[in-house]
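=== RUN LOG ===
request id: a7f3
mode: sequence -> structure
chains: 1
length: 78
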Amino acid sequence: MHRDPRAFLWDVREAAQAIQSFTAALDANAYVNNELVQAAVERKFEVIGEALNQLAKLDAPLAARIPDVPQIVAFRNQ
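=== RESULT ===
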């Protein structure tokens, strides 16, 4: 059974909100010196990339409405 494609968009939104929450009180220096936050942000970017990758496979027309999906998916591998 396939997931509803909108669930992948929900995953993207939740991960982006988490990144914003993790970094809201930090300046660049504080971020650079906080390995825990860096790891959490990195993981959420992986979630975003994987969710969009799965969305592109399941519902290409919907994924095509999101700018730069291939670059976002590729970013998760950085």
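=== NOTES ===
Residues 49 and 75 are 7 Å apart (CA to CA).
The two ends are 31 Å apart (CA to CA).
=== END ===
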